[in-house]
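Researcher: We're teaching a course module on how sequence relates to structure. For the next exercise, students receive a sequence and then see the predicted structure as tokens, so they can try to spot secondary structure elements on their own. Here is the exercise chain.
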Amino acid sequence: MTNANQQVTEVTKDEFLAMATRASEEIKQLRAQIAFLMPKAQAYDCLATVLGMLQGSPQGMTEDLAGLLDRRVKFLSSLPEPKKAPSDNAKKA
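Model: And here is the predicted structure for the students to work with:
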């Protein structure tokens, strides 16, 4: 649902593929950063727990969005381009 201030825009397949690829790469870069910082965060959590500052904090896993984006990009890249609809001028002739 859109309100009066929002415009509906169409995204081409190529635009979507580029956006999804960039999003996937950014997620992967952020994961690498997290992996680098994780030991420091775990050490901090251990110290904070020992000092009574924190209770043990659970960590959950989320959906692999980068993997999902990669699969969608691969799938959509393999699809043939859709045929263009005839223009309005061709219909009038």
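Model: If you want an answer key for the exercise: The chain has a mean pLDDT of 81. The chain has three helices and no strands.
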